[in-house]
Amino acid sequence: MSELHVVLGATGGVGRAVTAELTARGHRVRTVSRNGGGGAEELRADITTAEGAVAACEGASVVYQCAQPPYGRWAAEFTGLTETVLAGVEAAGAKLVMADNLYVYGPVDRPMTEDMPHAADFPKGRARAAVDRMILESHEAGRIRATFGRASDYYGPGGLNTVFGPTVFTAALRGGTARWLGDLDQPHTVAYLPDVAAALVTLGERDEADGRAWHLPAAMPVTGREFLDLVRETAGTGGRSAGLGRGMQRLIGLFSPIVREMGETWYQRDRPFVADDSAFRDTFGPVRVTSHEDGVAATLDWFRNADPGR
């Protein structure tokens, strides 16, 4: 029987994309979520418990950790979730691929590289740094093998719970106002979801990925104005673009907990936020990176079919 690849959090955007990529590469896949779904060999399990995590990871060669607590509860719950996942991975004798983000660095004044200090001094950033330390310490102690794939904000088919989801793509398709969170004229690394998944699977397949973090490859940074113009032009429905500034974020945050949470990471919105992915490209290249033109077209097609009542 072929090696088993297990996807935790398989019903989320990243989990579904990783499952699709694994399947396309011919791997045997088990998808794990609390309520089932995700395709492939499905398993319902509560991975916030050690028992559930061990059952989820049983027999795995590689485990892709794409699950996370609700955004507002990261600081309180992420380390506990990681403890149980590590128990499951260790029991299986598997390799862990952590779907990570760029919060650990905190505010920066140059393109981010993997050797930058973990200087985040806000609750969600500290939680992500603590999670990464736990995983790396387990790797260094020989309990597991592990690697991290860090990506910036992403968009793509299935990308609903993202700042580049319905507020951009659905709005553009309806001829409304497509809104960018933050300054419209600051460059920002924006990842395409299938590319994120492809890179995570590469990390799972390659031994030289182990023991460190990698910035996942993405197309060239774009400003919010450039990205929204591309979305609107491709959609062909008219409408307009707008930036959501800090003042409006605070105001909306009085009524929306999700928008209020964005204040913690506003430094990602008011200055350049660029990830250097050259280490990944140099080690694993050539890599598949989708142009924003092709990615936006595919994403609009997905949102068009997902919103038949538009």
Automatic annotation (TrEMBL):
Coiled-coil segments on the chain, per record: none
GO cellular component: cytoplasm
GO molecular function, one term: aldehyde dehydrogenase (NAD+) activity
InterPro entries with a match to the protein in the record: Epimerase_deHydtase, NAD(P)-bd_dom_sf, NAD(P)-dependent_oxidoreduct
Source taxon at top rank: Bacteria
Ranges where the NAD-dependent epimerase/dehydratase domain occurs: 6-209
PANTHER family, sorted: NAD(P)-BINDING DOMAIN-CONTAINING PROTEIN-RELATED, PROTEIN YEEZ
Protein name (Swiss-Prot/TrEMBL): Nucleoside-diphosphate-sugar epimerase
